[in-house]
Design brief:
Length: 270
């Protein structure tokens, strides 16, 4: 089987997002629960996952599906793997905040992210990178100008909310921004032209980052660990977390940013 497009999943994914948005508006803070690892879950997470897994399997039989809420076997002989986070940013979602999305990535046989969809209903954002095509934002080409602007007090950096525990950013001259969702953090430079780069906090799984990786990669942007290692998925398909903090953005912006990224003296286990 060869997948040359995941366009057929756009409609069911946006419909699932609209359903999640309706559910969020009816939820209260007490409706959220906790998993064994103390991460947040709501009734909407498995609802969205079940719906989208059915859509994927009906359109693309014989693929792997790795999703957050239910463990599924991974078969390395299958040609493709979908990585699905039904509600990325569940904590924000459960508190009626806007910084959440549905994140769906496609990886090829070599586990290279080749396509991705990120839909954030509350923010009215649909980011889509189809197989072999550059990402679009709400159906339009992504603005990539300004990549040569120097770092300054006007520079914006998208970061995970726990960055203060992981990096000493006191020397960074610009401003730090945070949304809530790993996928939205990592695609910050795609969504907002004024964001020079993004840093995510090194606690995620394959379903948290695969779609963002595909989208960033489609534009020729860097997507790498703070250690400068390449982000590979061999271990993550077995359930392992990412190795380190992840940086995303134009390569020249990442290079300019790195001198300001120092491990915090109060770095906690991640």
């Amino acid at each position: 089987m060869h997948i040359d497009s995941i366009f057929p999943l756009l409609e069911p994914l946006t419909e699932a997002g609209a359903m999640a948005l309706r559910e969020q508006r009816d939820m209260g803070f007490s409706d959220r629960g906790f998993k064994a690892d103390d991460s947040i879950i709501t009734k909407v997470d498995p609802m969205v996952e079940t719906r989208l897994v059915e859509e994927i399997t009906s359109r693309y039989p014989g693929v792997n599906i790795l999703a957050e809420e239910k463990t599924r076997d991974f078969d390395p002989t299958r040609p493709y793997t979908f990585a699905l986070d039904p509600i990325d940013g569940t904590d924000a979602f459960s508190q009626s905040m806007a910084g959440w999305c549905i994140s769906l990535g496609l990886l090829d046989r070599e586990l290279v992210p080749v396509a991705g969809i990120i839909f954030a209903p509350r923010l009215d954002l649909l980011i889509f990178a189809d197989v072999g095509r550059p990402a679009t934002l709400n159906g339009r080409p992504v603005e990539t100008s300004g990549r040569d602007e120097p770092l300054s007090g006007k520079s914006n950096l998208m970061v995970t909310s726990s960055i203060h525990r992981q990096l000493n950013m006191s020397g960074f001259p610009g401003k730090l921004r945070s949304i809530g969702s790993a996928a939205l953090h990592l695609t910050g430079p795609v969504i907002y032209p004024g964001v020079l780069a993004a840093i995510d906090g090194g606690r995620g799984y394959i379903w948290d980052i695969a779609a963002a990786h595909a989208i960033v990669r489609s534009l020729g942007y860097a997507f790498e660990y703070l250690s400068k290692k390449e982000v590979v998925y061999t271990e993550m398909v077995g359930g392992s977390r990412v190795e380190d903090l992840i940086l995303a953005g134009a390569p020249e912006r990442i290079a300019a940013l790195r001198p300001y990224l120092n491990r915090s003296d109060v770095l906690r286990q991640i």
